[in-house]
């Protein structure tokens, strides 16, 4: 049994420098996140091995003015003061109380990204 992979993608820079455009894109111009997600789900759908299963989960955060916010759950009580970044001794850094959503397909993650983008500061 292989346990799988985790991925984090960060964009850092001043306001107006193109972070959102690079990450999410605009209109028909897809950013890195939708391009990678489309490819990932195409590969999952192309898998024909009965011994291989996939579980895809996603979270989306914003770090702004040194506060971490859960963009998939804007009503998260920790958003007001900022969610805490912690370190697990074996699994490494994580965001405490961050929502993680099981994703079915590209359309589902695309809808979540749109909602998360709308929740940004």
Could you list some keywords that capture this structure?
two-stranded antiparallel ribbon; single chain; alpha+beta; 121 residues; globular
Task: Explain what this protein looks like in three dimensions.
By secondary structure, the protein is of the alpha+beta class. The chain is built from 3 helices and 8 strands, in the order H-E-E-H-E-E-E-E-E-E-H. The strands form 4 sheets. Strands 1-2 form a two-stranded antiparallel sheet. The chain has a two-stranded antiparallel sheet with strand order 3-8. A hairpin with a 3-residue loop joins strand 6 and strand 7.
Give a quick summary of the entry.
This protein is α+β, with helices and mostly antiparallel strands.
Radius of gyration: 16 Å
User: Alpha-carbon distance between the termini?
Assistant: 41 Å
Cross-sheet strand order for the largest sheet: 1-2
> Mean of residue pLDDT?
92
Q: Could you give a short account of the major beta sheet?
A: 2 strands, antiparallel
Counting DSSP H or I runs of 4 or more residues, the number of helices is: 3
> What is the helical fraction, as a range of percent?
25-40%
Which structural class is indicated by helix and strand composition?
Answer: alpha+beta
Q: Point out poorly predicted stretches.
A: none
**DSSP E strands, number:** 8
Topology (SSEs and partners):
Layout: H1 19-23, E1 25-26, E2 29-30, H2 32-46, E3 56-58, E4 61-64, E5 67-70, E6 85-88, E7 92-95, E8 101-103, H3 106-118
Antiparallel strand pairs: 1-2, 3-8, 4-5, 6-7
């Amino acid at each position: 049994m292989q346990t799988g992979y985790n991925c984090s993608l960060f964009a850092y820079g001043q306001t107006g420098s193109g972070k959102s455009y690079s990450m999410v894109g605009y209109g028909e111009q897809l950013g890195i996140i939708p391009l990678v997600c489309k490819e990932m789900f195409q590969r999952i759908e192309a898998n024909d091995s009965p011994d291989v299963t996939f579980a895809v989960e996603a979270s989306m955060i914003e770090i702004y003015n040194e506060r971490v916010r859960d963009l998939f759950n804007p009503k998260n009580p920790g958003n007001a003061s900022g969610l805490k970044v912690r370190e697990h001794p074996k699994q490494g850094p994580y965001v405490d109380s961050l929502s993680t959503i099981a994703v079915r397909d590209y359309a589902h993650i695309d809808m979540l990204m749109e909602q998360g983008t709308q929740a940004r500061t």
